[in-house]
Amino acid sequence: MFDFNAYCFCPDLIADKIGDANFFINLICPTTVNSNHHVVIDNKELLWLEYMERNQGCKNSFDNLLVWRRFLDSMSNKIIKSESVSVSDGGTRSLVVDTIINAPTTCRKYLVSLKNDEYKPFIGKLTLNSVDLLSEFNLSDSTEVNGNRKLRYNLSVFQSDLLKALEIVSQTRVGKKENEHNDYVRDLLDFKGYDVYDQTRRGKSFSELNLGELDLAIKYYNRWVAIVEALRLKSVDRSNIVKHYKKLLINYNPLQLTNTFLVVYYIGSDNGFFNFFTDYRRYIGTLVEEDVCSKSDLEFVGLFDCKSDYASIKSFVHRVKIDGNILLCQHICVKFC
Questions:
Q1: Running DSSP on this structure, what letter comes out for residue 150?
Q2: Closest-CA residue to 8 (of 52, 53, 38)
Q3: Which end of the chain has less neighbouring CB within 10 Å, N or C?
Q4: What whole-number distance in Å separates Cα of residue 33 and Cα of residue 305?
Q5: How far is 233 from 250, CA to CA, in rounded Å?
Q6: Which of 160, 154, 198 has the alpha carbon at shortest distance from 180?
Q7: What is the distance between the alpha carbons of residues 36 and 307, in angstroms, rounded to a whole number?
Q8: Average pLDDT, the chain
Q9: Is residue 268 part of a domain?
Q10: Domain boundary pick from 145, 169, 202
Q11: Is residue 319 part of a domain?
Q12: Distance from C-alpha of 96 to C-alpha of 112, rounded to nearest angstrom
């Protein structure tokens, strides 16, 4: 499994360090240019404008900044552009936080700051959205892959592990009920090292957060990071789909976790899976906000397809915005016939 990172750099750090030869040559270039990792800025480049304005008074710093940008631009997809927010909405630090949170990537996300204390007001928001806060001193360590370190929740890795678990379950589906499929998926993820909760192991916090009706929830270091809901379908049963989707996005996601998964066990005709998936995807793409929730702050942003290595599994991601925050719901259809 590839292990890529996405870094968003605080303007204070760039202003203070980009002119330093050791930082430029031995740290930021190896981390972001001579690697498979990415740099995140907003799609209006307000963040990059901040970098330039903060460094225009020092020729060496400004020249290094231009060289860094040329390096990044010369490489395909090196810069990831996030959905923009206005600086005036909360200042530069708020811009940095929203930029890395909204970055359209499943890489590990890092906010790299000059002084971590200055981001204390955003710790909860960063944690909730699986963004790690780094100082320059931890930047190099973050690029290292250590197979012995504690399993860390990462969206792209979890997606791969969930698909593998579902593929295994699909091969042993005969004679089992839906809750038994979910139990098997839970056990496989637990064996992999995830902290998995379901309705038999929900605990006090699970109940307090009103997560009790969901099939699976994933915790990482005492925080909820992902939720999984499953249903069985023979055809595109619209009312049933909407019921489960509302349950996943609204009713039982009080923390508005950004990583949600809707697993569909297809139990229709043996040769109808491809047509079912096509119809299901088309239906999700035509949903309007009022179908799921009357909240005016719910917005469906769009769909994008996901690659699957398994013939019996097809999936796509539905981008949803609630209260201005982007949530990703991956719809996974598994052939169970």
A1: P
A2: 38
A3: N
A4: 28
A5: 21
A6: 198
A7: 20
A8: 83
A9: yes
A10: 145
A11: yes
A12: 10
Q: For position 148, what pLDDT does the model report? A: 39
Look up the CATH number of the domain holding residue 164: 3.40.91
- For CA atoms 69, 73, 75, 77, the dihedral sign is positive
How many structural domains are present in the chain? 2
H helices of 74-193, in order, are 91-101, 123-128, 136-142, 155-170, 178-192
Q: Using the 3D structure, point to which of 145, 177, 195 is the last residue of a domain.
A: 145
Residue labelled with tokens 């990482």: 220
List C-alpha distances in Å: 273 to 167, 182, 236, 266, 276: 15, 20, 11, 7, 5
pLDDT tens digits, residue range 64-80?
999 999 989 988 889 99
What string of H, E and C letters represents the secondary structure of 210-277? CCCCCCEEEEECCEEEEEEEEEEECCCCHHHHHHHHHHHHHHCCCCCCCEEEEEEEECCCCCCHHHHH
N- to C-terminal Cα separation, the chain = 29
User: pTM (2 decimals)?
Assistant: 0.58
